[in-house]
Amino acid sequence: MKKIALLFVCTLFLSCGASNKMTRTVATKINGEWTLETVDYETEKEGTYNFTIFNSISPKCLENTNWKFISNNNTGEYVLLNPSCTNIGIQNFIWTIPKEMYGYDYSIMIKQVNDKMKSTTNNKGYRMQVSELSDEMMMWTYEVKVNGQKFVIKLNFIKND
User: Fold this and answer.
1) Alpha carbon 126 to chain centroid, angstroms
2) Where are the alpha helices (DSSP H) in the chain?
3) Are 146 and 89 in contact (CB under 8 A)?
4) What pLDDT was estimated at residue 108?
5) Is 113 helix (H, G, I), strand (E, B) or coil?
6) Could you tell me the CA-to-CA distances from 105 to 41, 49, 121, 139 in Å, in that order?
7) What is the pTM of this model?
């Protein structure tokens, strides 16, 4: 009986360590500078949609923005340059790679902060699935329901040299 209990405890510790190691690997791969090339969406229903991301930012304002992810302190920034958009300039955020949820292997949590790293959204965060990740590209997806229909927002990044 003691051997079974010891085996169970060892398995538990090893599985937790593997999960943390995989999370660190994803965080290390995300580390660096990226360009958010496009923001797309998929839906089963035809139509024109007007949606916002990250606290009321238009997808057009996020396209072609430069993003920096610093994995040793989980901070980052992106720069809004389009003069027709509100809040142009540097936008700071804190990011994490939370544990698996809803069957997705990896997700990313973004919390917007000011230049003193204090929340600007009352600690509200935005969680998206990391659907694809390689040395050259990354895709985040965010699934919502619109009038009962599935609606998937896709953020497509490429790694800067």
Assistant:
1) 7
2) 2-30, 59-62
3) no
4) 92
5) strand
6) 21, 29, 27, 13
7) 0.80
DSSP-assigned letter for residue 28: H
* DSSP character string of 56-96: TB-HHHHTTEEEEEETTTTEEEEEE--TTSSS-EEEEEEEE
- Residue 3 banded pLDDT, cuts 50, 70, 90: very low
Q: Mean pLDDT score of the chain, rounded to an integer?
A: 81
Backbone angles phi, psi at 12, to 5 degrees: -60, -45
For residue 121, give the 3-state DSSP assignment.
coil
* Residue 138 main-chain phi, psi, to 5 deg: -150, 140
| Residue type present at position 110 | I
Task: Please tell me the distance from the alpha carbon of residue 55 to that of residue 144, in angstroms, as a whole number.
Answer: 15
Contacts of 73 (CB under 8 A, 6+ apart): none
